[in-house]
Amino acid sequence: MSDILDSLGSCADVKTVIQRAEREQADLALWQRIAVWCYENSRPSWFLEILDYLISFKIKEKRFEDESHNTAKIKIINSLSAYYLKLAALECDHHRREEHFDKMKTFVNLSDKISIGESLTFSLKGFLFFYQGEFKKA
Fold first, then answer.
1. Digits of tens for pLDDT over the chain (138 positions)?
2. Cβ contact 74:118 at 8 Å
3. Which of 77, 81, 97, 128 has its CA 20 to 30 A from that of 116?
4. Domain residue extents for the chain
5. Which residues have CB under 8 Å from 97's CB, separation 6+?
6. What residues contact residue 41 under an 8 Å CB cut-off, 6+ apart?
7. What burial class does residue 70 get, using C-beta atoms within 10 Å of its C-beta: 0-12 exposed, 13-18 middle, 19+ buried?
8. SS3 sequence, 41-65?
9. Contacts of 132 (CB under 8 A, 6+ apart)
10. Global pTM?
């Protein structure tokens, strides 16, 4: 399965990446590594599309229902939370900044539904409060 990661640079579009990972029946951890590779290699639209696909379809699959997959699910969701937190922190327009914070909150809440008290989710909440100026909550 690591050959998926090795061949990402030669993929023409994100649909090809998704199809390859589907064919290989990639587990959630590999899916998340693929998404992070896209982000680290300046393909943020691929990163977003893969994570959206995972959250919309993959993490709901029967084979990923049991608790042993919770950490991978939370990592996927928190990747999106962190992405929107970064966008919000860099945004100058107040309205767009709040939109990014709202998206981040949606994903943090989704993570909490899987497992309350996950350390990364807890940290992301602290950063959210900090960037929103709610220092007592942070």
1. 467 878 888 888 999 999 999 998 888 889 999 999 999 999 999 999 999 999 888 777 777 777 778 888 888 988 999 999 999 999 999 999 999 999 998 998 888 888 767 666 667 777 777 777 776 765
2. yes
3. 97
4. 1-65, 66-138
5. 88, 91
6. 8, 9
7. middle
8. CCCHHHHHHHHHHHHHCHHHCHHHC
9. 101
10. 0.79
